[in-house]
Amino acid sequence: MITNDGLTHIREIRDDIRSLPIIFTAICERKAKFCSGIEYLKQTSSKYIFPSSVNSMIAVPICFGSVVVGYICSTEFKDHLKMDDKLLSSFTYYGKLIGKFLENTTGAYDSIILSKRELEVMKRIAWGESTNEMADSMNISELTVKQYVKSAIKKLGANNRSHAVGELIRKGIIS
To answer: For residue 52, how many other CB atoms are within 10 A of its CB?
Structure first.
């Protein structure tokens, strides 16, 4: 969370996301959501309602393939902003572009030890995708996904998927 007072890391925000319906809905539907006025009050936990001029909020999910890995929220809007479906679609697209950027980011030169597809599969595992979801989104069979995983585990000298992902994170290849 970025405010005038600085940056707050998500680990410091200890809320069940289900207690913030606008964010929860944006994540579940993988679409940007906007609310204002009385709807804003209904959609926001009383913990986050401050006596101020804030009365609108947008939540934009950051999508990595079929998985939501984060979200952007804002309560800062220009006066008389007209939030319509076209603008919300643009925000949804923006969240997907950020996810694409993250997907294509490698953290170090060590990633050369894995093939491009092996690295892609390991990133998707790190982001929480199942073998079935990976196969569908990558247009390959589940058996092929499993072969990429097996090969990556062997190249990394890991014992299992979790260990392999941990090694990639430790080496800075994925984040």
So the answer is: 7
Structure tokens at 166: 């941990």
Contacts of 16 (CB under 8 A, 6+ apart): none
CA–CA distances in Å: residue 112 to residues 4, 29, 59, 118, 125: 41, 35, 36, 10, 18
Model confidence pLDDT, tens digit, residues 43-91: 666 665 555 666 788 899 998 777 787 888 887 777 777 889 999 999 9
Distances (CA, A) of 54 to 69, 77, 82, 88, 99: 26, 9, 16, 19, 28
User: What's the pTM?
Assistant: 0.57
